[in-house]
Amino acid sequence: MFTCADCEIIGCRKGEFEKVPANCPIKEEEVYECAREEYEKEEIKKFIDGTIQLEKEGKGRWSRVEETIQFCKMMNYKKIGVAFCLGLKKETKIFVKILRDHGFEVSSVICKNGGIDKKALSISDGEDLRGVSCNPIGQAMLLNKEETEFNITIGLCVGHDALFFKYVEAPTTVLLTKDRVLAHNPIGALNCAHSFYRRKLRNK
Ligand code: SF4
Predict the structure, then answer these.
(1) Domains of the chain by start residue, with CATH
(2) Ligand 1 probe mutation, 26, 28, 29, 31, most atoms within 8 A of CB
(3) What DSSP element (H or E) covers 31?
(4) Which pLDDT score, from 0 to 100, does residue 121 have?
């Protein structure tokens, strides 16, 4: 098992390979060989180059929104897909307008697309199963049908986002991760994990 999260050496970053822990993934030569082969592919090279340019020009200067727009420009994308949550409709409308102002063609799909009843999808039943279900597979399939070159998600629920990523074809980035309690700032719970959130996060 790999335990990079617990590693205090981080020899991979400094090139100090003789100091790495016994279970360091650096010893997984076959995996790295496969990864290197992927990086040799023309479309991946172009993609990586875009991320390098982005870091070079925007690190510490551009917000995530700006970085996303600039990355789309650097990659020369024309058609962008936006998969968003109903609860973030207002912010999505603003973002889509900004993208259009920058010259992109934007196709946006809301989480509730298809209007499917929750009861029709769930294997459990109960009083709380009311209303229309989120449809992340529909979001992915609709953006696939639109042949978007790059997608951006805004506030998809935990789990729904995973299904979206499983079914979507074009590369996708996340503009915003939903957190209904912490104003969409999930890291806040970890920042306070030693204090105010200690009890809430404990495994009971
Ligand atoms: S790759 Fe190896 S050296 Fe780097 S953080 Fe993981 S365990 Fe540590």
Answers:
(1) 77-204 (3.40.50.2300)
(2) 26
(3) helix 29-39
(4) 84
